[in-house]
Amino acid sequence: MFYRPEDGHGLPHNPFNAIVSPRPIGWISTRGGLGDNLAPYSFFNAVAYVPPQVMFASTTAKPDRDGTKDSMAQLRESGVFCVNVVEYAMRDAMNASSAPLAAGEDEFAVAGVEKLDCETIDCPRVANAPASLECRVTQIVTLPGDANVAVFGEVTGVHIRDDALRDGIFDVMSFGPMARLGYKDYTRVENLFSLARPGE
After folding, report:
1. Stretch (H or E) spanning 93
2. Residues 81, 49, 177, 119: is their CA dihedral positive or negative?
3. What b/e readout covers 156-188, taking b as 16+ CB neighbours within 10 angstroms?
4. Structural domain count of the chain
5. Per-residue pLDDT tens for 21-56?
6. In a domain, 45, yes or no
7. Whole-angstrom Cα distance, residue 71 to residue 79?
8. Domain containing residue 39: CATH number
9. What would the pLDDT profile of 49-95 be if each residue is shown by its tens digit?
10. Is 142 among the domain residues?
11. Is residue 6 part of a domain?
């Protein structure tokens, strides 16, 4: 089949998210005048090594946040955010933190997630995450569409849980990172193989 997005796909559900998958989940924590916030974003990735940088995109809005979401409103206020890696064991808490709560309600408390303060920024982080990336906002880019915004941040601090380090390697097999597929579907890393690049 072929379709032009502006004409519609004619399917029961939009296939776009399923086509662009799997996607890592950025479990974004922020702090603002209304308190702390935690929410998962599946339009997320690393974008540069030196200095280390990440991005995530917000694509919907809440009626109590003036055309955006809590995470976006708070990082605009503070200029910082933290990306927490989601392991399989935290799947239910991650999902609970996606609830459409009122601005000011703390998803950490609602989802039963312990939090700690970051080291380099004034922001909470998920206490037991396999890894957390403390970030300072470098760019906020408005994208075409009603509420589409991309946020870029420079990583200023990295937390790695001790049991996720094995022989000096961040071992994703030790905790099974989750990824987003399309529709209501997720997956976790369960198989690993290596490929040497040509010339290596």
Report:
1. helix 91-96
2. negative
3. bbebebeebeeeeeeebeebbbbbbebeeebeb
4. 1
5. 999 999 999 999 999 999 999 999 999 999 999 999
6. yes
7. 11
8. 2.30.110.10
9. 999 999 999 998 888 888 888 999 999 999 999 999 999 999 999 99
10. yes
11. no
What residues does 188 pair with on adjacent strands?
178
User: Is 8 within a domain?
Assistant: no
Contact of 192 with 173, CB cutoff 8 Å: yes
d(CA 168, CA 22): 26
* 20 contacts: CB under 8 Å, gap ≥ 6: none
Q: Is the peptide bond before 22 cis (omega within 30 degrees of 0)?
A: yes
Answer for the pair 51, 153: CB distance below 8 angstroms, yes or no: no
Q: How far apart are CA 53 and CA 75, in angstroms?
A: 16
Instruction: Tell me the HSE value of 161 on the side-chain side, using a 13 A CA sphere.
Output: 18
Tokens of 74: 């708070």
d(CA 22, CA 153): 22
Strand ranges, E, within 86-185:
115-117, 124-126, 131-142, 149-160, 165-166, 169-170, 178-180
List residues bridging with 50 in a β-sheet: none
